[in-house]
Predict the structure.
Amino acid sequence: MSKNITSYLYALGALLAAVLFMLGLLSVTGFLTFTPAKDAQTVTTPSQASISSDIQKLSTVKPDFPSIRAFFVDLADKKGAVYAFDVLVQAPLPSNVDTHLLGHAVGDELYKQQGLDGMQYCTHDLRNACSHSVVIGALLTEGPVVFDKVNAVCKNAPGGPGAYTMCFHGFGHGVLAYTDYEVPDAVKLCAKVGTKEYGYEEEYQCIGGIIMEMYQGQHDPATWAQKKEKYLSPDEPLKLCQADYMPEGAKVLCYSYITPYIFDAAGAKGGNPTPDIYTKSFSYCDVVKDSRQRDSCYGGLGKEFIVLAQDRDIRNMEDTPNDKLQLTASWCNLAGKDEAKTSCLSAVVDSLFWGGENDPDVTIRFCSLLTDAAEQASCFTHMFVIADYYQTDAVKRTNICSAVPEQYQTQCTDKLVH
C-alpha cells in the first residue's frame, strides 16, 4: 500500500479534496450570486442556550436539503454567518443531507458579511467548506484582481499542512464559473496560482475544483447546462483527464476527482451509486496507463465509499462505527484487481486521517478491522507514511505509536519517533 511514498504524498491533496465530489450529488442548489461585503459585522461568542434554541427550531423544518439550506441562510442573515456555522456543526440532521454544501451556503453568507476577512472565522469543519466559499465569492465578486492575492488569502485557511493547497480546490470552482464553464480557459487561469515552492500543487488543486464544478455546475446551472455536452460524454467518463489541454502534472488529481463521472457511466441512478455497480466502476480505471494516475483513479472510489457509508454526513468521521468501516472495506474488495483494492484501502485511510485533523483512533480501528494480514500490514504502513507527512507534533506522533497494535509499534516508532 505504500509501494511508492512519493506517489502517495503527491496524491494526498487529491484525496483530501476529492471526497467532496460525492457530497453534492443528491442536493438541489441554485445559482449563487455574490454582492460586495457590507461593513463587517461584529462577531460575538454565542451562548449554548441560543444555539440549542435554534437547533430546536431546525427540528421543525422540512427534512430536505432546500428547506434546511434556506433555514441556515436565513439564520446567517439574522444572527451572522459565524453563529450559523456553530449551529450547523452541532445540529442533528437527516440522512443524506449534504453537510459540506450546507457549509458552502453559510460560507457564501460569511463572504457577503465579512469579505476576504471572513477567512479568519473559518475552521476545517465540514471539510473546509467555509474557506472554499470565501475564495469563490471573492473571485465572482472582484474578478481577475483576486488572482494577485489569493495565494496570500489561502495562507490563512484553517487547518493543518494541507489546508493551504485545499483552499485552491475551492477557488477552482469559482474559476470555472468565472470562465462561463469553458474548461480549457479555466485550466489556463489556474496556472496563475501555481508556485514552485509547493510543486505547483495550487494549480493542480485549482484544476481539481474545475473537474468537480463541471460535474454539477452548482455556481451557474444555466450556463453549465449549455456547455456540459461540449466537454462531457456519458460513455467516456475519463474524457476530461485525457484531454490535450489537461497538464500532465494535474492528471493524478484529475483522476481522483473524476469518480462521480465513473459512477454515472457504470449505471448510478440519480447520482446515487450502489454496491452493484462498484466492480464495474473500478474497471474504468484499468485503461489508465500511467501507474500513479491509475492508482489515483482506483483510490477515488475509496474516498467516496467512506462518505457513502456515512450517509454523506462528514461532520463526525472520527465516530464512524466499526460496522461502517467494515462495510467500506468490503466495497474496496469488490475491485477485480489487487492493485485496485490496495489503492482503494489507502484512499480510505487518507480520508479518515484527513491530514491529521481527525483523531487517529478511527484510522487505527479501520486498519485493525481488516482481516487479511497483508492488507492490514499495508494499511498501517500507509498510515505511518501520511502521519509522518502531516503530523508535526512530537507528542501526537508518539501517541499514535502507543495506540497501534503491538506488532506494528516498532515500525511506527522507527517512522514517527526516531
